[in-house]
Amino acid sequence: MADDMTGESGKAVRSGFGGKIAAGLHFVATPIGSARDITLRALDVLAGADVIAAEDTRTARKLMEIHGIPVAGRPMIAYHDHNGAEARPKVLAALGQEKSVAYVSEAGTPLVADPGYQLGRAAIDAGYRVFAAPGPSAAVAALTVSGLASDRFLFAGFPPSQTGARRRWLEGLEAAQATLILYESPKRVHRILGELRELYGADRQVALCRELTKRFEEILRGSIDQVIAAIEGRVLKGEIVLVIDRAPPKSASAEDVDQALRAALVDLPVKAAAAQVASDLGVPRRDAYQAALRLKEEQG
Ligand code: SAM
User: Fold this and answer.
1) Which residue, judged by its Cα, is nearest atom 14 of ligand 1?
2) DSSP characters for 104-135?
3) CATH topology of domain 24-136
4) Residues with beta carbon inside 6 Å of ligand 1?
5) What would the pLDDT profile of 88-104 be if each residue is shown by its tens digit?
6) 170-190 per-position pLDDT tens digit
7) Assigned CATH for 139-244
């Protein structure tokens, strides 16, 4: 059964397996391990697109072969980090001829620590339609199994490898009020956990997610210290996502409260100033009210 989707314009865009695919650039997510994690719509788009663009055309061919999708003489364009400037015009030319172009990265969702951003930007700027065939991404898979809060998360990609830049990068994320998701090479996983212990404290909860959806999938959850102990002396192989709990909220000092109240009392009466500061700094409303009364008295 072919399925009907609603396109950006609100018009139904028909897409059966191998059927006609709407003109435009289609970012297609592909599996991060298990080949069966491809979506039916990703297969539709790969089967029906006029042009296939790929970070690695060999990987794309192999994926299509696994799923019985012939390239059938369609043009394949290699588009990766090192040839964007030369390859982009080729993709844009195809879009200019009202063709459908499917883009796949090496694995997972294009643009997520993978090429595609500048290609998408160029297509949008030139007025072409851009579609997503959403699917797997290691970041979201790791968040899902991490056991850490998922209400707000910050995907930070790969940390820089150079020591100074890496430290500044990690320091900049330390206080983020969101679950952090990082990609890291297995060669540097011991190093990053040591750095996190030093900068974030040994008790911060983390989940080290390795080889998700693959045969040797492993998830280690616990404090930074516990995970360091669990992998001590081990050489970790494969692909890794590190999920890190957010910093505990900092409790405001009496001085912080006074300072915020002084500012609030300029425009607000005592009760409203206390309510605002209590909510902003997460302190009990009664304490803020008492402090506001004291400051008001001092001010005369
Ligand atoms: N675009 C991909 C995505 O959507 O997840 C990410 C591409 S990035 C170049 C590759 C990194 O993703 C790996 O170094 C690893 O950190 C993470 N990754 C990819 N597949 C993974 C898997 N099966 N298990 C754990 N991490 C994975």
Assistant:
1) 239
2) E-SSBSTTSSSS-HHHHHHHHHTT--EEEE--
3) Cobalt-precorrin-4 Transmethylase; domain 1 (3.40.1010)
4) 32-33, 105, 107-109, 112-114, 137-139, 183, 209-214, 239-241
5) 999 999 999 999 999 99
6) 999 999 999 999 999 999 999
7) 3.30.950.10
